[in-house]
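> Could you send the Protein-glucosylgalactosylhydroxylysine glucosidase prediction when you get a chance?

Sure thing. Input:
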Amino acid sequence: MADVSGDPAVFSATALPADPRLLPTLTNACLGTRLYRDVLHLNGVYNGAAGDTHRADVPSPLSARMGLPGARAAETFTLDTRTGTFSHVLQAADCTATHQLYAHHSLVHLMAFSITIRRSAHATHPVTVQLQTPFVPKSQDLDLKQGPDFQGAHYIYGQTLVPEVAGGPRPTVHMLWTPVPRALTLPAGERERCWQFLTAVADSREEAERSYGAGLALAAAGALHASHAQAWAARWDGCGVELDGPLALRKALRGGLYYLLSAIPPQGSPGFPFHGISPGGLSNGTRGEDYWGHVFWDQDTWMFPNILLFYPEAARAILEYRIHRLDGALHNAQQQGYRGAKFPWESAATGREVCPEEIYGAQEIHVTGDVLMAFEQYYCTTQDQKLFREEGGWELVAAAAQYWCSRMVWSEEERCYHITGVMPPDEYHDRVDNSVYTNAVAQRSLNFAADVARDFLIPVPEEWVDCAKKVKVPFDAEKQYHPEYDGYSPGEPVKQADVVLLGFPLMLPMSPGVRRNDLEMYEPVTARAGPAMTWSMFAVGWLELKELQRAQSQLNKCFSNITEPFKIWVENADGSGAVNFLTGMGGFLQAILFGCTGFRITRSSLRFDPAFPPDIDGLTATGVSYLGNKLQFTITRGETRIRVTACAREPPACPLEAVLEASGQRWPLREG
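Output:
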């Protein structure tokens, strides 16, 4: 069904998708559900041992659906990304009934919905709205018990049934909710009335009661939804991307940014206990669905750069998620007979490997380098040394470097280090030697670890320098391209973006000719219906080379994974795989935020080199963060304007300036 709204920030339709997986999600940093779904999830709460661990299903009182019995009514369903609110409106001859739902953006343990009935001017009789709900206060994952009511709310609580690790903790969930009746009636003589229904979910009774009480107070003042909308307005004030281009592209960009921002910690909350972002987000992750809610490289490679560009504080929370699970990564390496820290292919509560299929957990080791690349991007963008010196960042970086050194074996024949028996990002192949992406990301990890050590005046282990210098990065000098691994034959099918990631985000030094050859070698053999993030990276490559029409054709492929009307992404173009696929959205956002602008985060600068595909004539990126400053880039085909909208509280060691590489011309950048 079509999106009938002409506003790029509003998605609206007169009917819902037949597939309930494609309904809009309602999430914040702590809670998530899908429209009309009978379960919700609390971030970080998993049930099940090892590979069976999955997001614990919490029964959802927000699953009510509104109806007007006996009335002929026009229906509209709308997601407003400005306010993070879904609304269902029934318009009949004698009344209008509106159902609003949202996950509160600042009171993150609170979700709410309201029913508003407004009588038409000529009508006088009572109006009744029916509420149908599948809600039952039971769960397959929690041992739920009923507790005493609190300020009119019902209360249940209970622990998960099975810990991830034998003898490990079993989190407790506490939920308070406003009882939902089967019907609501606007009495005769009353023009309009609004009923509010609150749900508070937390890992302690105190937090659930605090959140529910705060929600009640705001509702009594008529300010509950307004406070939520204000939090979203503040979020959008801090970042924005406006395109001069087709409405469909602008909506896709807005949708991806909205769903990703829905998943990050609230603003002004340093130290927020964050539990990572899974490919399908908090709305998904039930057992057997969307990878069980586990966290992959998707978070660090595909989502993180977009978050870092606008919200370094939220990016820091993602890194803290990895730091807090370092013990699990150390355990993973030890279990496989290696030193240091091996980050899991799939992570849940502990950081131990929870992938249900051993082949991926054992072989898809590039994830450790992907985690370190996120740390490097953050370090270069913020120069936040406190995270590394005092809060565990350095220990993580050093442990990852140790792992890579222990994972390499010396080849006397080739006089270089090999990494053997791995699965590259292209999951069509396993047990290969010298995956070019894996080896290149390992090399980058070691170089970064050495750079940080030098910055902190820590002696750099010779092993790190030697392994980084001598690890094999496969290259075919005759054909001038990078084979995916030792023994790769040109033309072999590839599942997803792999070698093309060397150019971006790895920024492996290569000539434009080699970059072109890699793109041309792998584009025709990459699965057309494969994972959604793939074509974004081909688009970035062609934008680098100023092949604008070819970039456009790659961007256009992304639309096969975007469903209407609510811009929910599916992992694969045939509709299979994860839904609300934040990974695909993250790749698409990078194609715009890093592809069209040419932004590149380096050790010494934030570089930019704009290029637009034919569909786009201009772009404004507001709230770009660099070294504590906030910048606005306004880019057209003819010029780039940079405005400093806020300066760092502490001046950088070097004044901020824009530099033209070709001429060396410099412009100082001051606030305003």
